[in-house]
Amino acid sequence: MNNPDHNHKFSLTTPLYYVNDVPHIGSAYTTIVADALARFQRLQGKSVLLITGTDEHGQKIQRTAAEQNLVPQVHCDRIVDSFKSLWDKLDIKYDRFSRTTAPKHQQIVNEFFDRVWQQDDIYLDRQQGWYCVSCEEFKEERELIANHHCAIHTNKQAEWRDEENYFFRLSKYQQQLEKLYESQPDFIQPPSRRNEVLNFVQQGLKDFSISRVNLDWGFPVPEDPKHTIYVWFDALLGYVTALLEPDQEPTLDHALSQWWPINLHLIGKDILRFHAVYWPAMLASAGLPYPKRVFGHGFLTKDGLKMGKTLGNTIDPSKLVDRYGADAVRYYFLKEIELGKDGDFNETRFINVLNNDLADVLGNSLNRSLGMLKKYCQSTVPQLTSADYSLDHPLKSIGWDLGDRVSQAYENLQISHACEAVLTLVRAVNKYIDDSAPWKLFKQEQQAEVEQILYAVLESVRLSAYLLSPVIPVTSSKIYQQLGFDWDFNRDQLAQIEEFQLHSKWGKLSPNKTLGKANPVFSKLELPSED
RNA sequence: GUCAGAGUAGCUCAGUUGGUUAGAGCAUCGGACUCAUAAGCCGAGGGUCGGGAGUUCAAGUCUCCCCUCUGACACCA
Description:
This protein has 20 helices and 16 strands. With 531 residues, it is α/β, with parallel strands linked by helices. β14 (300-302) and β15 form a beta hairpin.
């Protein structure tokens, strides 16, 4: 907590995705958001740990593997490969990929389980009820629809179970949790989600079972190996295991020494309760500090409809990247969808937004400016600095505090606002060029004025590319390179604080540098004709 | 059923403590220009701000009722 390094470190997680199937668009969405946030923190010179990974235990996995005549681990390995390959395609730069089947994870789980056990927070009790394997949850009779089918997995029938399970004394932590929500008001975000949790907790917490019998695929309960630790209990601890250095001996102390507590758990709204209620209670029992915040984002729809296999309207994230590229997919989800709200994917809108924002507005502003620099200044950046412009200059007036405003937006997880703020500058660039018409001034031999305009324009494009680099690293890199910087936002991510302070301010563009030929940085997309 | 959030131009959304002709981006149409990825710039059309009633000099903005959507919780079967 009082670690002096604290402000220089930032740890965040995506969920550990369930390996029931290849990654779907929702997992891609969360991970893209997490990556952009991580990139922004790195840009500021902070040490960042971005954790993602997979949750691989449970009956559902065991059965899915069996259906394909695979042993569970082989099935998991295959799915894990598909996750990793998608993250690569999307330019996701994760620091840890935490798998719950990793041997070191079992040691962490055992140690943690033992701590909770020592607290007398685990007890054996009989549990009867309907169990949805797809949810890996016991359901109340009333939660089920006709014929005991699960309300979420409507094609799956819940199974009657009557078994002895170990229970976690969640009820004991009711007050502590309420105190947590009160003393850390932004622990759960956005506020609407927070209210839901508050509502739920106020009604009284019930203990929940954390073990299953008749299940092999998982870790045995240390004190009673006939039982297998419940998949969620195991999965959440994957965040802790992820904190271990690669060669470190897997103990809780080691895991928690550097990066705990996690600054941000980024999750979908469907798993809010596990992260906002069960997880902090488990941590409290083990005597560990709480994470700083849990953010539950919204869901994606397609053309206004819920996506689902039954409707057959799912989006394959892998195909989407193959067709349009990582920057395009990233930009759409980060800019066009307000984090926290549900958002819609519509392919025509997707094309329109990208072609306008990235090709016509951002890309073309660079292209036309470099064209003029070549014709009017022999491609040499004019000998000017920020000091040569007054604060009411059309571009400097927007650019001078843009870095601060955009930083604030990223900090608040308002990536969409950050993009919008940058776009305002780029749109102003295009307007400024037309208003000042350098081509006329050049014909009138007003060279100084032309240079004054071009420097301001190029610098504004530079600043925009820099501030958008967490969102569109490929495009930003191309812009930076054409502006004479030897920099690749995908490769070089170890920034210094001083660098950020320079590059995030208007006026960093180095004068006198001779720039190369302009090349479109973002090619226009086309709707697929017919498949 | 209870609670929370939402319903503003074709689409995605902004709209401060109620106050001049309700805004932006995209899409559509028209115009002038040429440095540019036929991009950009200028302009136009397009909204009874979910519906109704009320408070007020004045309501997208406050109150009440209703409708629709989303979510959480509960109940019934």
